[in-house]
Design goal:
MetI-like_sf, membrane, about 0% strand, about 80% helix, mainly alpha, MetI-like fold, transport
């Protein structure tokens, strides 16, 4: 029994219990919060540059009491939802076609690679000229920041489907459309879902960039306004809110993926 436990303890990626999975991140955040409080409450850093956790919490409470925090969260969540879904609806079918058709892959992949290396930030002034400063411009920035990357990730996920599964479908006399919809797409869906999770993080980044430059509402806009008045407590508070929102949506997608793709649960 003892030797069995020793062998398990030496294994790489030893599975954790549910309690350990919950405790580990809580301990990490608690340590970081304690260090932050220690540095700021003892006066080691000027509050103008790094306010204390209590000051940041109070700033968020004030913003929430005024209604600004909830309005900004609602606006940003709306923009991220619409812009990201547009990118997903366009990228997934194209990525699947690239993964199953060499002609489409050869024709489209170089263009995707070419555009994805262009910095989206450089297009912000152009998007303002093209779409103004309303929500359409924010959707366009999110689309540009996620679509081209997501197409290639979906294509890669489809190309990892074992060839013997495709050969099996062809042996049964299935049509190409049926092979794609009944074999290729279901087999690649767990990896596609992982790609969607990754690209959602990029979408949040580009949304904040758009709101920092040209917006009249949203989390990024509030950060810009706070910068003008050196309200670092509000800035850090909103950055924390962005992190919480991102973590929330990521964990929701992770939970959906685990429930939907139970046989691939070990990969999550």
């Amino acid at each position: 029994m003892a030797s069995t436990k020793r062998r398990r303890s030496r294994r790489l990626r030893t599975p954790l219990s549910r309690g350990q999975r919950i405790a580990a991140p809580l301990v990490t955040f608690a340590v970081l919060l304690a260090l932050w409080a220690l540095v700021t409450e003892t006066g080691m850093v000027d509050p103008l540059f790094l306010p204390s956790p209590s000051a940041v919490a109070q700033a968020l409470v004030d913003q929430a009491a005024q209604g600004a925090l909830w309005t900004d969260i609602g606006t940003s969540v709306y923009r991220i939802t619409v812009g990201y879904l547009i990118a997903v609806v366009m990228a997934v079918p194209l990525g699947v076609m690239m993964g199953v058709n060499e002609w489409v892959l050869s024709a489209v992949e170089p263009l995707m690679d070419f555009i994805r290396y262009m910095p989206v930030v450089a297009f912000v002034p152009l998007t303002i000229i093209w779409a103004g400063t309303d929500d359409l411009q924010k959707f366009l920035i999110i689309w540009m920041g996620t679509f081209f990357q997501l197409v290639l990730l979906v294509c890669d996920a489809v190309m990892q489907v074992p060839q013997n599964l495709i050969d099996f479908g062809e042996t049964l006399g299935m049509r190409k459309h049926d092979i794609i919809t009944r074999i290729v797409f279901p087999s690649s869906l767990p990896r596609i879902w992982d790609a969607l999770r990754v690209s959602l993080g990029w979408a949040w980044t580009w949304l904040v960039v758009a709101e920092l430059v040209a917006a009249t509402s949203g989390l990024g806009y509030r950060i810009t306004v706070s910068q003008r008045y050196f309200a670092t407590d509000v800035i850090i508070g909103y950055v924390v809110v962005l992190g919480i929102l991102g973590l929330f949506f990521d964990q929701v997608m992770r939970a959906i993926g685990k429930r939907a793709f139970k046989r691939w649960e070990g990969r999550s």
